[in-house]
Amino acid sequence: MDTKEMLFKFKETVSGYIQGLEGFSLEQLLWKPAEDEWSLGQMHVHLIHSAQFLHLQNVAMCLAPNGNPKVSSTGKTKLGEDVFRAGSFPPDRVQVPPSPGYTPPQPESKEQLVDGLRDTVRQMTEIEPAMAALDPVVQANWESGKGTAIVLLRNTVVHPGFGGLNALEWFQLIDMHYRHHLLQRKRLDDAWRAAHM
Q1: What number is the average pLDDT over the span 65-90?
Q2: From CA 167, how far away is CA 163, in angstroms rounded?
Q3: Which in 2, 47, 86, 126 has the greatest CB count within 10 A?
Q4: Domains defined for the chain, CATH in brackets
């Protein structure tokens, strides 16, 4: 899949999230099935913040390392290899204990979430041309292993579960992450309906 297709799929995924938000009241977005679980609103905030303040920042670091110690040539873990081969996360639920540094805040409004999702699409669209220059099809056309794209693809930033990911992989990870959370969205929507019948 080339980067334009990745971006197109991401836009489709985000469009689904925005359409889904139309069907949720603010009360439902703030409701939590248990004290140690996230609300639908917190899940959306998590998606926006992780893309904008982690994934896209790691893309930028891989493209312009400037001596940043987080950039290395570390490879992927076995899980990372499996996830990227499949093109998606396993359907397993991931639960991280609540903490001030990880637990997202509740949203202030539905509009805040829609604006954040649209802003993420804007940022992805702006960086896609740089990703296209790193596309594996492009790199296959380099006659020597010394081209700029090849060198930049060696720059990785470590993901806690997947190991070292390069700029293109961090870019691809954003849509994979959004699609993975569709399972959580359905689970939270089902829990809301069951609790309010």
Answers
A1: 93
A2: 13
A3: 47
A4: 3-195 (1.20.120.450)
